[in-house]
Amino acid sequence: MPTVSGVEARGAQHCETAALGVLLRHEGLDLSEPMLFGLGSGLSFIYWDAKYLDFPFLGGRVKPFELTGNLAARLGLDLQVRETTSPRKAWEHVTAPIGAGRPVGLQLDSYHLDYFGAKVHFGGHVVALYGYDDRDAYLVDTEQQGGTVSTGLDSLARARAARGPMTARHRSFTLTAPENRPALERQLIPAITACADAFLHPPIANLGHRGIAKAAKLVPTWLGRTEAPQRDLPRAALLMERGGTGGALFRAFYRDFLAECDELLEDGRLRTGHRLYAEAAMLWTETATLIGEAGTSGDAQPLVRAGTVLGELSRIEREAMEGLSRLG
Asked: What is the pLDDT of residue 52?
């Protein structure tokens, strides 16, 4: 049974940073989950509604795998990505590094994984594979999904082959850290300013601080957007807090990332950004609570209050990012 030794789950909250943590610790680079998220310029916002969606989607991070690419570039890592339409080749792309004693990252649709309790299609899910036998694959996922888990080889094949929104063609990847990688402290400000610039200048009104302002106007109408408010609103609230976001739609991660940065760089603008994102994290949790309350009660007033809070969040996060964009 080919298995990579020394793999730990570490109680991670977000799938992509959970997998990245496994791959990087194997390379001797041990960073916190908020640091991985921040170095990957992972924070964002999107309000998305479309005909194929049962209900609008609030997202708090960049699109799947963009964080991995950003992180690899910042740390000077060799990121090897393989994709194919062939299931046979896809499995070969996995078995070769595992046989060489190296864990592999996989992007797949979590719906098909045996251990997943919530059967909802999500093609942007990321796991770390560290071993397999004749029947099962051994993975690291988030703490809420069990940490170190297993799934049948057939279910893994279906998850990797799935097609639909955010899916990839049997994507697998490895990371290698060079001996002389860039100093961590020198990569923090570029990561922060890149994230801030993207947040402040989104190409469409659904993204960044403009997207939060749009949500402030539309969330109060959500009772009329669904025929099943008792299902859809609490689910939206749950995804904001516990859907692999680390809490507060990834704002808790970014708050903690900025705190770590301030310890390393001791910059007043970082302290201000940290203070504002601490406030934002509390308000996002309040927003999720109000959305869930509206779904449970059928009363529109919590959604009206949520809209007001979202308007304040748009202002707070814009102010925070304006300050952070001037770092360096």
From this structure: 80
Whether residues 281 and 212 fall in one domain? yes
Share of the chain above pLDDT 70, in %: 100
Instruction: Please state the pTM of the whole predicted model.
Output: 0.96
Q: How many domains does the chain have?
A: 2
pLDDT (tens digit, 9 = 90+) per residue, 228-257? 999 999 999 999 999 999 999 999 999 999
Residues linked to residue 172 through DSSP beta bridges, in sequence order:
82, 106
User: 150 and 236, same structural domain?
Assistant: no
Question: If you search the block for the tokens 């921040």, which residue do you land on?
Answer: 38
What number of residues does the chain have? 328
- Is 24 inside any structural domain? yes
Beta pairing, strands 43-48 & 78-82: unpaired
Q: Which residue segment(s) compose the domain that 26 sits in?
A: 15-30+78-176
Element (DSSP H or E) covering residue 113: none
Q: How far apart are CA 92 and CA 175, in angstroms?
A: 17
Reduced to 3 states, what is the DSSP secondary structure of residue 207?
Answer: strand
- For residue 300, how many C-alpha atoms fall within 13 Å in the half-sphere facing its CB? 9
List the structure tokens of 145: 């999904």
Distance separating alpha carbons of residues 152 and 131, to the nearest angstrom: 12
- The residues near 73 (Cβ < 8 Å, ≥ 6 apart) are none
In 3-state terms, the chain is what percent helix, strand and coil (to 5)? 55, 15, 30
Residue 13 has pLDDT above 90, yes or no: yes
**CA neighbor of 160 nearest in space, from 107, 83, 214:** 107
What are the tens digits of pLDDT across the range 90-128? 999 999 999 999 999 999 999 999 999 878 899 999 999
Distances 68 to 79, 109, 122 between C-alpha atoms, Å:
9, 17, 18
